[in-house]
What does this fold into?
Amino acid sequence: MARLAGAGSSADMTVPVRIALLGAESTGKTTLATALADSLRTVGRRVVLVPEVLREWCDARGRVPRADEQRGIAEEQARRMMAVQQADVVVADTTPVMTAVYSDMLFGDRSLHPLALRHQRIYDATLLTGLDLPWVADGLQRDGAHVRAPVDAMVRAALGEGGIAWRVVYGSGEERLASALSALGPREREVVGHLLAGRTAKEAARAMGVEATTVRTHQYRAFRRLGVRNLKALLVERGRFADAA
It folds into this structure.
């Protein structure tokens, strides 16, 4: 929980930390989104949870959308996310990527992919809920356990197509939440490791075989996800980082 606990605590932070949850049906996405938001609120963070537009749409109309209605749902999901500014952290219980994937799977329509992938790049962390939870029926949006693996594969393919990094979260209850909270990419972990060892950005860049600007980019992203503003604050968190590595 401490990994994002301090996110946005500085008054001059104008862009909230954005976390996206993606996943096939009945993989605990909404439950995890709620738990993640609640856990950050308990440590004083201003958290906004952006709910799934598709669920609201289906509940209001008593049916699933047609092919020509998919774009409006994707655009509204993105609009709601971008509208949130007064927050430290914004948790998205799905993004247009899921609409694009289902539009492709159900209707053979890939026209939403450019919009969805462009929007997905705004997130500081993209979490994909694993298929380790049992399938549970839940109204109009559930097609059956047999669709979970194909949808999961299509989500991974879409993210790969867009060059977007993601982490898969497994476990149930607190274990799944802990997995989500430890979502740092491998390159960011490497940068943080160098900084904890007392190396400068230039020294880390030489060790990693990359430019110093690349190290600073990973450093910025890692600090945002860890909820710290500088190296001094990171050193305070080093015990927690070591536990999660």
Summary: The chain has a mean pLDDT of 80. The domain at 17-181 is CATH 3.40.50.300 (Rossmann fold). The two ends are 14 Å apart (CA to CA). The longest helix spans residues 212-226.
